[in-house]
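tool=predict chain=A
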Amino acid sequence: SLEQDEFINLAQTMKVITASWVAETSGAFTAADITGCQGMWLVMVETNPGTRAPTDDYDITLTDTGGRDVAAGILADRDTATTEVALPDRVSRPVDSDLTLNITNNVVDRANGTVKLFLSSVPTAIAAAAA
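tool=predict ok
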């Protein structure tokens, strides 16, 4: 399942979307749509395993309607114990549709967590990748 919260700054230049997810009893996650992304640029993603942490090195993709992972693989092998931040290489990535959240390689029953998308209304240069 997926719940979504959204924050937009007063200047309307940045948007933060927090998607809280819960896996099924089998550990599988049914892909879910994250809305409000279209026309924005992906600047950063923060992942946080929940109180019932997923399997170590679980993977996340954020696919557009064409099936392209707009995170370009930077959300693979997420940690089960710590919050992690991932940045696109060099420049923010354009988002031309709503996104689908996909979580794979988890076997923990009812694992949960959050994925926080930091989006900008303008392209943004990125100095260095985060750990």
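The mean pLDDT is 89. The domain at 2-120 is CATH 2.60.120.380 (Jelly Rolls).
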